[in-house]
Amino acid sequence: MKRKLLPLITILILVACTTVSCLNSDDEEFVFSSDDTIHYFELDTIYGKRYPFTIDNRNGKIFNQTPLPAGADTIINKTLISKIVAGGVITKKDTTVFDYANDTVDLTKPLELMVWAMNGVDKREYTVNVKVYKNHPDSLVWKKTAESFTNNQLTGRHKSVCFNEQIYLYQLQTVYFSSVADGQKWEKREVLGVPSGIIQSTPIVFKDKLYYVDGSGIYQSEDGFQWGKVNTTVEIKQLLASNSSTLMGVASKGGKLWYSNSQDGETWTIGREIADDTFPLADISYSSYLTTTGLENTMIVGDPVGENVTPWFTDNGLNWDKLVPAAQYACPKLESPVLFRYNSKFYLVGGDFSNIYESVSGMNWRAVKKKVLLPAEFKDRSTSYSVVVSPDQFIWFFWTNPSANEEIWKGILNEYASEL
Fold this sequence. Notes:
By secondary structure, this protein is mostly beta strands. The chain is 4% helix and 39% strand. The strands form 9 sheets. Strands 2-3-7-6-5 form a 5-stranded mixed sheet, with no helix packed on it. It has a 4-stranded antiparallel sheet with strand order 8-33-32-31, with no helix packed on it. Strands 9-10-11-12 form a 4-stranded antiparallel sheet, with no helix packed on it.
């Protein structure tokens, strides 16, 4: 049976009588508090963990910033609030007396509370909303977000890059682009300023510009469309990667190839000679990252030689080392592999897309069997695809003919997802 709140005048009389009985006749007037706010709110532990709640007194909202784990709705549908601290008397919104220590509540839906100040005048409404993940936070969710986005004009192999809050898709002399926030409307421009007129490898983002190696040298662009030649101190045959301070490439000198780097794209330092013929020089993808000690490293892969995909890494671009694991931890050969880093792990995709391979360090790899998976629709597609990871934590897959009709797929961990 519901317990209705005693009329506020009754509460005030009881409090007043108690107060007066403790005061002498010449004591000063007692003023009751106007505090009608909630100061603290806490649920019991969920799967052994406490989740803090934010109290927005201005708007009368109480909510958890970090959602509860998937499945927690079966716990909070009949639960106790372990602690509430308020300036006055707490009731349900309909004035039902709320004994939070003993009254179970269903927090799978909003809970409306009222705080009555002790002066009998002020009151404040609150709504408690408890967020719960629909799926496990470490699960990758996918959605096909667009089809025929260039009216099927983008066919076969292409290159993609995320730059200045835009995504650029290059195919020979044409570039299609859309904002990261949109990804639905794509505009078309021609590539200008590159002698061959075409972009055949993925441009490298470095210090707010794009860099690309054409047959006659390095070219740079501030907008992704208009390119201009960079005068370099040595001949650069290939660009490999970049980090926050260094552009990395392959220099040609004396009929040999050399690892090299530059801090401005113009002045290049020659490093060690490239003596290993398995070092990737085509279809390169890379990831620059901070190690656990705070150092900035870079990892690359390209079309593999042999039976496995073998990453290479460097801390400066002047000397690259091969990461060769024990046989049971190697990533098997993948046609047109793509490397990307996501949620502090490395991933490799390619081949027949039956698996996505994961590594913490880049040395030891495993085929992921649960949670972080590729859509079943990717299976057995050919290699007319590209991948970018945008700053808002989305993984973008672009598919083009002949592997599939033009499609855009976006994936994101539930931990980061607000909508998809």
